[in-house]
Structure formats: structure tokens, C-alpha cells
Amino acid sequence: MRSKRYLALFLLFSGLSLLIAACSSLLPTLWGEDESATLKNLWIGSLPPLSADPSNQYADNLDAAAFGQKLFFDTRFSSNSKVACATCHLPDKQFQDGTPLANGVGTTNRRTMTILGTAYSPWLFWDGRKDSQWAQALGPMESAVEHGGNRTLYAHLIAEFYADKYTALFGPLPDLSGLPNSAGPVADSEAAANWEAMSPQEKEVVTRIYVNIGKSIAAYERRLNPGASRFDQYVEAILNNDPEAGDILTQDEIAGLKLFIGEANCINCHNGPLFTNNDFHNTGVPTAKYLPDDVGRSLGAQQVLADEFNCLSVYSDAQPDECAELNFLVTDEHQQERQYKPPSLRNVAQRGPFMHAGQFATLEEVLNHYNTAPQAPAGHSELEPLNLTEKQIAQIIAFLKTLDGPIDADPRWLTAPQ
Amino acid sequence: MPSATPLSKTTRILIWIAVILGGLTIVYALSMSTMMSRLGNAPSDLDYSTTQESDNGLYRVSYMTSTETIPVNQMHEWTLHVENADGAPVEDATITVDGDMPQHGHGLPTSPRVTEYLGNGDYRVEGLKFQMGGWWLMDFTITANGQTDAVHFNMLLK
What is the per-residue pLDDT across A373-386, written as a single tens digit (0 to 9) for each? Predict the structure, then answer.
């Protein structure tokens, strides 16, 4: 009898261990058809080649990109000769700065966004107040707290240091000798008054140079995109039915991925190969201390419509019917209150602090926010409480770390040019 | 009464294997059902037909998309075909377009609109974009000959 009982116990244990072994070997096939399709959509292999930017005829011009790279790193293009685009968009920090608010000649009210992959974005900035990379690049250059400069200052700098390069790309520089050193539609009252005193023709000539600066910087930034991560290797293995897929991610990372595309609803906004739907959402993110009211997209939508550099503007190279995003823009102040753009999650673990004003220092804080779904400080939050366990939150964070990957760009673009 | 013949060792092992396989099936079925419930969070009785009658039966409306399936996150257009109850094409209607995700409390990421009347009751709708998978509801309000009626289409995007 005793030996029979032992035999039964032995069989029970072997049965259980077989069951466990069978389950874990089944894991790669545990992705159903729909889930596999979702994984494929998130895979970097699904990122299409960049389509042309009809608003910027220099977007794919290599010389313009090289010129733009020089401007991107040139600190002379600022009021104190200390601030360049690269001051806040640091190549060794995923082209962002790792601080809650950006520090140029002053401090902004928003978190610096990464440049990587923005060529794919129909809207730029957290509130989408710009609709192209070149229009975006021109914003900080005239901001009193970022570059702090103005249009004639920049035009004079081009004439002084880059006349040959500029002329080769855009044709002869106009005569700027009679123009003030500082003039532009900026907050600085002296520069603004000088700008008002200029003739429409003078303003036009200077603004053309300014626009070409933006289009060159965009031609450079367009070449900076995220590369494949460990997550992408995993999806590729899953799609190829590679039996070693399970070795690429840990069980916790896979569990986190399953939550990400399932129960945790992350996929609703962080979808597609760049993990963003490029739309705007109110997720009840708290206000940032000591900052003025921030209404997000409800103002951004108005601003992009009125922007002198938008796709429909005289400075854009696009035909009006090529400006679909602007032509079918949503402007609904009430619905758009405190909506912000979901940033790409590629390399997100390298990019704290998080949210539009760096409100959360860690991914744990971010996930706890989504888990508890507090009321929005204004407008209406789309979140519902998730009731995830601490372990599940840790699994999602483990998964997010698998999105770390290199920058997909020629190394020449990743350092200051000589 | 003679007791039942003791099972042979082989039979017992076979029973265990059957039990294990049964267990595996249950685990698999459970995981599949969790997955299905996630995908199926829209009401199960929704009508996804691309032809619908308007609320008060004035119009019969169908749509065709410029892409094979309705894409997520890609601007595309629809052709809306409007007929009256007798099957005659409705000309020169004024049509407004709206849509939302009933379970998410947000609307469309764009403002699509009718941009052209193509003739034969066909209307071009441009600027359509859906920014996530799931249950979407599109609403068209149609006014022709002084009579207004609304038609709705459910869609389950993947």
C-alpha cells in the first residue's frame, strides 16, 4: 500500500512538472492571431520608409542635412551665444535633456521631447502647435527662454559664417546691411519694435532666410530615428515561429508585454511601431507646481491653425491638398482641454522624468498614475482605474525596458560636426 | 462481491497522462478566453454591416473605403452612397460627419467632412482617421429635400 502511495505521489509530481514544462514551452504560441497582429504592428519592421515632406523641398537633401547639423550644434544662434538646439536635444541622451523643464537662456514650461522619430509625427510639441519638423525648429529659436534670439540676428549670422553653404543651397543671400542687428516678432520689446519698423519686403526677405534655417535643421533631424530593440528581436522571432523566441525576453517581460497590449490598455494610445498614435489625450496628468495653467491641445490646435509656418502657409512648399492633417484639424476647445500627445515609448526607460512638465520622476510613478486614474485637474480624463497588482506594474516596467535600442542613423549625424 | 481488478501500472500511467492533457487543455482554454474577453469588450450584438437604414427609415446608406480594410492611424476616405426608401439615389444632400469610441469618451482625431458630390447618390468623405483599434461608431446626419435623418455604422478595428 505504502509503495503504491509513493508511486501515486511520484506520478502526481511528475505530472505537475510536465504540465509546467508544457505550459512554458507553449508560451511563444500563446499569442493568439490577433495578439500576433498587434505585436507585428508594434514591431519596428512595420515602420514604413519615411514618406516625403511636401512642405519642405529640402527635406531629403543631404547638403541641407549637413548644413542643418551645423546649425543644430551652433551656440552662436542664441541671444547669449551659449544655446544651440543640441543644448536641450543632446545626442548622448536620446536627443533630449533628462530634466523636468528645458533650460535655454531661461527655463521653459515644458519637458524637452526627443527628436528621434519625429519625422513621422503629423504634430510636433506636446500640444501639437506645429505641423512639421521645420516649423517646430523655428519655435525655440524665437522663444525668449530658449534660444532668445530673433530673425535678423540669425540672418546676419548666416551671412557672416555660412554665406557659401547657404548660397549653394538656397541661392544668393540678399543684402542685409541696412537691417537692425536684432529684430523679429519676439517678446523682447526692442527687437519687436525694430521688426515693426521694417518694411513688408524686408520682413519677407529675412523670414525666408529664417525658414531655410528651419528646413535645413529638419533635413538633419529627419535622419534621426530609433533602431531595433530587444522587443523587436522578440517579435521577429515570434513572427518567424523561432523556437528560441522565449530566450529573448524573460517571463516577466513577456507578461508585461501581454498586459501592455491587453488589460492595461496602454496600446490604445501607444500603438504602431513608434508606440504613439500621434493623437492627443487627457490622461489626468497633474499640474506642475509653480507653472501657469496649461490647457494643452485646446490651445495647440488654435496655434497650429494660425501658425505663419504651417503646411498651408506661403513658406510651405506643399500644395493645399497635401495638408490633410491641417485641412481636417479638430478644434474643440472643451474636448481638447489638457490633452497632450502620447510620446513614443521607444527608449522610454532612458528618458525620465516623464510627462509634459516632467511631473513624474520614475516609471513606477507613471504606472501608479495610470493604475489609479485620478481625476483630471481640468477637462476630462480618459483613464479608468486598472487595479493592477504591484507585480503586474513591475512586469510592465520590465517590458518597457526592452524598448531600449540604438539610434538608427549614420554615426556622422550623432556628434557635433567639425 | 469481488473487488475491482487492480489497475495495471501501464493503465495508471495512461490515466495520469490523460489527466495532464486534460489540465493542459483547461489552461489553454482559459488563456484563450481571457484573450477573447479582452478583444470582445464591445457589446456582442453590434451590427457591423456597411449598409444601414437611417433612424427614421428615410435613407438607406452604405459606405466603401479607399483602403481594403479600415486602417488604424492612417488618413483615408470613404464613399458614402445614399438612397431613399424606394432605392433611388439621393442627390445634393447636406451631410455632416461625426464619430466616437463609445467606451473611451473621445471622438475622432480629425474632422472628416463630405468634400464632393460624385453623382448617383455617392458622396466623397475625406479626412477620416481612427487612432486606435476597438469599437468605433460613425454618425452621418443627412438632409435632403428638407428632410433630415441620421445613420450610424459600428466598426470593430484591429
Answer: 999 999 999 999 99
